[in-house]
Amino acid sequence: MARCQYCPKSGQSGNNVSHSKRRTRRRWSANMQRKTVVIDGKRTKIHVCTRCIRTENKAMMKG
């Protein structure tokens, strides 16, 4: 579940910074969810980020 199957979104890395300004490495994971979609008449489960789910819902409401 590391990468969205619609967009190239995955995790990011950076530093935890304490009050004394010491830095330790950390990682932010993308908010990935399993979603069932219909592709060519077949139901399949894919890993999608929540931003893509939101965009898909907005496109379905519009059209």
- What's the helix count? 1
Order of helices and strands: EEEEH
Largest sheet: 2 strands, antiparallel
Secondary-structure content class:
alpha+beta
In percent, how helical is the residue content? 10-25%
Strand runs, count: 4
The radius of gyration is 17 Å
Net shape? elongated
Distance between the termini: 30 Å
Low-confidence spans: pLDDT under 50, at least 5 residues?
A: none
How much of the sequence is in beta strands? 35-45%
The overall pLDDT average reads 92
User: Strand sequence of the main sheet, in spatial order?
Assistant: 1-2
What is the compact description of this entry?
By secondary structure, the chain is of the alpha+beta class. The chain has one helix at 50-62, and strands at 12-17, 23-28, 32-39, 42-49.
